[in-house]
Write a structure and sequence with these properties.
Helix content is 31%, strand content 17%. The chain has 18 helices and 20 strands. Helix 1 packs across helix 12 and helix 11 runs antiparallel to helix 12.
């Protein structure tokens, strides 16, 4: 039940936030008749797994959203600038976002969806394409075919980074790029000039691995396709141009409602099947080129069918399709309509739906209690109160083959007051997610480096063993930094004039967004090291030994690769903190008491710096100590 509750809570809180900021306009009943399709949705196929359409313009312009808009405009407008730099669009320029999932993914989230973007003003095409790092020609035309993955596992990279990371805390993580030998590009000639970008190409390949395809439709419409979305199902839907299909109803309703979500029962059942077969755990391992674990024996009931957290809710999943609609007003409304193949199936689902609402109400209540105990999170309490009011008002009704649920909640003054601090909370969350994204990229670079070279990177030394440059330099070709890598003289020290002039070209991936350094070329991302390999109680970074994955005896999931440290260092400078169990260098941000860390398996964790000291910290620094580390102990 954990996964269902977690996703349900995420949906409730996110959609409650949407409803909370769009408060103007009259109350409207759920439309019963098809409406004229909203701009951009007419391009979306009516056959697929799911579709979500959000009227961003209405939410942005809502009267009660004024405190948020005012707060965003204050000071240096950091969040607004970040949105523009990430997406190539300003917040007030977006009219509607529509996400389309052609079929169930292995890790659900916006990073595997086709995104149909419509804007209120013409798009600055050159700026937009530059932001997404686009080219009319593929950079790696044979990239996916050579791994046997086809297009089905391509939902990562730029779109994953944008939606899965920058906005992904509520949705889940992006899938890592599959491991393969990173081949450094040939150095560019000194006089070679970049070709001007063709602004009239029919489509563009974006990201380092051509993992995103961008298709401009007109001046105000663009379609962003992760490779994972370009499945036969999606292509067939575009070509057939059917007027009727399982998603036709929700697409018609998009023009009449502020937020609509439609999903097919077939897709839900397939998603459950994927989880039961372990795809959510095995596929990331396959992508990281690890050997998948042996099949786990799962409990079954007397009838031989699976018995797990999904079993009590299976009657709900026997639907043909479901439609969710949100409308904004002084009283915000939610309507869920589930269509079943028979009246008997709908009747079986009715008590399960009522039970699910009750369990969700209890879960949100528990989450509210936990939030109330955290002094830094109390500003979120009005939002939880809003969600609880809606859930407690929920009514489930049965009409033949249709099961409906309605919920409503009034906008209160405390909720309006909470909006004033919402931008700061969003900024803090965005900073945390950006740091996590940078750490995740470092973890992926570690894995790709090890796959290509047979060992993890270490500080660069000369023929006599003198340390010259940091291991961070060695990762550059695996971090889209090959041009910078070619400029660095690896036969000279980090502070040699030949390399010193490149200090300020430090890649953004080595930055912690929320923390300022004294010099722009400094980083908080460092790794504990030791001089000589002992074979016991060693960190992965050893000055005189190339550590391999086979030597990580404690397991990559409990062995740390890179920490966010308290003090910063020059990114090119070798000699990160020495590992001394009796006197460990301080980790983390002293203001927050938290430290970001990426493990050798690529997982990003957050540590409580007061909790992780001494032996407890040493246990995750070392790769062969044999100490027990509970993965659930750090989140």
């Amino acid at each position: 039940m954990r996964s269902i509750v977690r996703w349900s809570l995420g949906v409730v809180v996110v959609l409650a936030a949407f409803t909370a900021v769009g408060l103007t306009g009259p109350d409207r009943p759920l439309a019963a008749q098809p409406a004229k399709k909203a701009p951009g949705t007419e391009l979306v196929p009516v056959e697929g797994y799911a579709v979500l359409s959000v009227n961003v313009a209405k939410v942005h312009d809502a009267g009660a959203a004024k405190p948020i808009r005012d707060a965003l405009e204050k000071g240096d407008k950091a969040l607004l600038k970040r949105i523009e730099s990430d997406y190539g669009l300003t917040l007030d320029q977006v009219d509607r976002l529509t996400f389309f999932w052609p079929e169930p993914g292995y890790t659900p989230g916006p990073e595997t969806a086709a995104v149909f973007v419509t804007t209120r003003k013409p798009i600055d095409k050159a700026k937009f394409l530059k932001t997404w790092r686009c080219s009319p020609e593929p950079k790696n035309p044979n990239q996916f075919g050579q791994f046997g993955f086809g297009v089905g596992f391509g939902g990562f990279g730029n779109l994953g980074r944008q939606f899965g990371i920058a906005g992904g805390a509520a949705f889940g993580r992006a899938i890592p790029v599959p491991c393969f030998p990173a081949v450094p590009a040939a150095p560019k000639a000194a006089d070679e000039k970049p070709k001007p970008l063709d602004l009239n190409a029919p489509l563009y390949y974006c990201g380092s691995y051509d993992e995103t395809v961008l298709i401009p439709i007109d001046d105000t419409t663009v379609v962003v396709l992760p490779t994972a979305a370009t499945t036969p199902t999606f292509v067939a839907g575009l070509l057939r141009k059917k007027g009727d299909g399982p998603l036709a109803e929700v697409l018609a309703l998009a023009g009449k409602h502020d937020v609509v979500l439609g999903v097919t029962g077939k897709g839900i059942r397939q998603q459950i099947k994927n989880y039961r077969e372990g795809y959510s755990e095995v596929v990331p391992l396959l992508l990281d080129c690890k050997v998948p674990p042996p099949p786990v024996e799962k409990p079954v009931g007397p009838d031989g069918k699976p018995e797990d957290e999904f079993t009590p809710f299976e009657p709900l999943a026997e639907l043909d399709r479901a439609v969710v609609a949100f409308d904004f007003g002084p009283t915000c409304k939610l309507t869920v309509t589930a269509h079943y193949p028979t009246a008997e199936a709908a009747k079986k689902a009715e008590p399960v739906a009522k039970k699910a609402f009750g369990q969700l109400t209890d879960a949100v209540g528990d989450l509210r209690k936990a939030t109330a105990e955290d002094a830094g999170e109390k500003d979120w309490l009005p939002l939880f109160d809003f969600a609880l009011a809606g859930l407690k008002s929920a009514k489930v009704s049965l009409d033949g083959k249709t099961l409906s649920a309605t919920a409503a909640a009034d906008i209160t003054d405390p909720l309006k007051a909470a909006f004033a601090v919402l931008p700061t909370k969003i900024q803090d969350a965005a900073d945390r997610m950006r740091m996590a994204n940078n750490l995740r990229q470092l973890g992926l670079a570690f894995q790709n480096y090890e796959s290509s070279n047979g060992h993890f990177p270490r500080d660069v030394t000369d023929g006599e063993g003198k340390v010259l440059l940091s291991w961070r330099v060695e990762l550059l070709p695996y971090l889209e930094g090959n041009d910078l890598y070619q400029k660095i003289d690896r036969t000279k020290a980090w502070d040699d004039p030949a390399n010193k002039k490149l200090w300020d070209e430090m890649p953004d991936v080595f930055k912690v967004p929320a923390r300022v350094t004294k010099e722009k070329h400094e980083t908080y991302f460092q790794a504990f090291r030791t001089v000589n390999w002992v074979g016991k109680d060693d960190p992965w970074q050893v000055d005189t030994h190339n550590v391999t994955s086979a030597e990580v005896a404690d397991g990559p999931g409990t062995s740390a690769a890179v920490f966010e440290m308290e003090d910063a260092t020059n990114w090119m400078k070798p000699g990160d903190p020495l590992f001394d169990p009796k006197k460990l260098a301080k980790i983390g941000n002293p203001k927050t008491g938290k430290a970001g860390v990426v493990m050798l398996d690529g997982a990003v964790r957050t540590l409580d710096v007061k909790k992780y000291t001494g032996e407890k910290l040493a246990a995750i620094i070392t790769i062969n100590s044999g100490d027990d580390v509970d993965p659930d102990d750090f989140k």
